[in-house]
Amino acid sequence: METVKLSGDGRCDSPGYSAKYGLYSFIEQSSEKVVDFTVTQVSQVANSNAMEKADILREKWLSIVHHTANVHDWDGCTHFHGCAHPPLERDDEKAIKWLKIGEPSHDVLKEVVFDKKIQAAAEKLSEFCHTGSLESFHALLTKYCPKRQHFSYKGMVARAQLAALDHNANSGRNHASITNGDRQGEHRYRTVFPKNRKAWVAKPIKEKKSYCHVSEMMCDVIGRRRSGREDGNINVPDLPANIAPTPRPPVEDVVTAHLTRFRQ
Ligand SMILES: [Zn+2]
Fold first, then answer.
1. Distance between CA atoms of 237 and 29, rounded to whole angstroms?
2. C-alpha 51 – ligand 1 centre gap (Å)
3. Beta strand segments in 187-258, E
4. What spacing in Å lies between the alpha carbon of 67 and ligand 1's midpoint?
5. What is the pLDDT of residues 39-72, one digit of tens each?
């Protein structure tokens, strides 16, 4: 059985007043394909989800102290009450050299796991494993849905779908080679100067992108139109008209309040 490794990350558009969507996407790590995404309204709910995510991550990290002592479920956590691995076989359980609670080795491990600085670093580490393909998907997304432009919910979903199709059609491209001259066959590179590395580095150039999926899609659209099969509508959830937690007051009231503040 093959394991599916999903990594997820969110992009939040809040540069000004009008942008109000968050996009959370999942990528399968070995194939680097986008498998799903959701567009959400950026509101307090989204913020609490982000906090919940950080909580789960922290609880998972802390659970190392249980697992290493052969304890695989526990009380006292809000989200994470047991190890994510399947139940251990009797023989495997016997073969593993577990730590013993209260012994120096387990105490030392606890010191490391509970260390606030290491906890902060571990949170970053969990992001490290997925930055590559998710980052490039999010960069591509900015081309399809520029952050400073406002789109309707349907527009946002359709644009993200196009970005996902583009990404999936072009992920896993090969390293491009020089096609003629003395150095024919050698890999192509470009030099870049990343802000965080403070030195020039060589970056592989990939083979040209393909847009074959677009013509296929266009044919399908025409086919559907001809056959009258126009399904595939986007379901719009019940969205508030704006990100404010209270309804829009009459404009005169807001102006009066503004002038009162101004005079004080
Ligand atoms: Zn465990």
1. 29
2. 25
3. 189-192, 201-204
4. 4
5. 876 654 445 566 666 777 788 888 999 999 999 9
